Amino acid sequence: MKNYDQAERLQKLPPYLFVRLEELTAKKKEEGMDMIDFGIGDPDLPTPEPIVKAVQEALPVNKNQKYSSSQGEKDLRTAIAEWYKRRYGVDVDPKTQVCVTLGSKEAIFNISQAFVNAGETIIAPSPGYPVYSGASTLFNDAECAEVDLRPENDWLLDVDDCPDGARMMYLNYPNNPTGATCDLDYLKGVAEWCSEKGTILAYDNAYSEMCYDGYRAPSILQATDDAIEFGSFSKTFNMTGYRLGYAVGNPDLISGLKKCKGQIDSGAPIFIQKGGIKALSMYGEDGSAPKAVEDNMKIYAERRKAIVDGFRKLGFDVKMPKGTFYVWFDCGMPSMKFTEKLIDCGVVVTPGSGFGKSVGNYARVAVTQSLDRIEEAFDRIKKVL
Ligand SMILES: Cc1ncc(COP(=O)(O)O)c(C=O)c1O
């Protein structure tokens, strides 16, 4: 008899809480219930027209239908380097300091494949994007030091809580799931700590362009050249399905990432990369965001306010986030129980316990529904809470 037992490293992954959520939601849908879904961090708005057009024009051209390379096309790497100059005032060499990625998720995982040995420690903020404590740690037989982020510290990771001697630290602001943001001085402090301790700093800046109320997220590369930063076209330009991102930073770290990716993928489709070039070219010379991005952020800002106000009216203590498209708050009961209550009335949110043990009473709401649907959702929520 053949055995189809999954590899031990796969078995070590914790049960995916979101699977249970999907099952519950699917059951309600089967019963004919109209579900209003604030669960997934996937923009409902369309990709800006000029980007779609650039991809459409590139697709029929034969040379764009071939393999790219795992580090990405030179013209996109150059466009990313120029964007870093305009947006952050940072100089990077497109040859040695930029790598195009298949969304940022694979690079967040592959950087650990490239640099972390079995038994070494990875610092993962908790709550946090599950890949840090999941695949990045478990598939490398590494140890995960989950460091709690605390509301009284505005969800900023405190380096005094972090262990010495860790091989790598993941850090993410604007933050999923808390919506927390940080300033450049904070990043300088963490970068200094990592350099002192010999810990590789892997900075996840996937939400760098999702900012509100005049706030603009900094890059870790404004604080140090001794780090790697991951960015993404997904959320900024509503391009989650295109799978396009970038890693920028220290040449040795980029070189390790490229070596790893060279064994695994053959690069993002070239016609998609052309869309990426178009997207970045829409930014102003002074690094200002294009109208298309600003318009999207205005829509998210209105929805964010409607959701924050809606939960405040119901008596919850909710902060207005300055970044991401998530609203995050203490829901006053185990988050899975809260989530199940809401699913019963056709509203889907994400339980905080999916992002870390210490936040079992928090819930995350993605602002990916129209104002009408948000209003409808609160009419329903009022009746069950
Ligand atoms: C914090 C964070 N990092 C990275 C990603 C990955 O995004 P992508 O692979 O689409 O760039 C996500 C997606 O939700 C995220 O929330």
Notable characteristics:
3-stranded antiparallel sheet; alpha/beta; globular; Aspartate Aminotransferase, domain 1; 7-stranded mixed sheet; 385 residues; 12 strands; binds pyridoxal-5'-phosphate; Aspartate Aminotransferase, domain 2
Structure summary:
The protein is an alpha/beta fold and 385 residues long. It is built from 13 helices and twelve strands. It has helices at 8-11, 17-30, 49-58, 74-88, 105-115, 130-133, 135-138, 184-197, 251-264, 270-281, 291-313, 335-344, 371-384, and strands at residues 36-37, 98-101, 121-126, 143-148, 168-172, 200-204, 228-232, 245-249, 326-330, 347-348, 350-351, 362-366.
Task: Tell me what you see in this structure.
With 385 residues, the chain is α/β, with parallel strands linked by helices. It has 2 domains: 8-46 and 291-384, Alpha-Beta Complex (Aspartate Aminotransferase, domain 1), CATH 3.90.1150; 49-281, Aspartate Aminotransferase, domain 2. Helix content is 39%, strand content 14%. The protein is built from 13 helices and 12 strands. The strands form 3 sheets. A 7-stranded mixed beta sheet has the order 2-8-7-6-5-3-4, sandwiched between helices. Helix 4 packs parallel to helix 10 (270-281). The radius of gyration is 21 Å and the shape is globular. The termini are far apart. The relative contact order is 0.17. The model has no long low-confidence stretch (mean pLDDT 96). Pyridoxal-5'-phosphate binds at residues 41, 103-105, 108, 129, 172, 176, 204, 206, 232, 234, 240, 245.
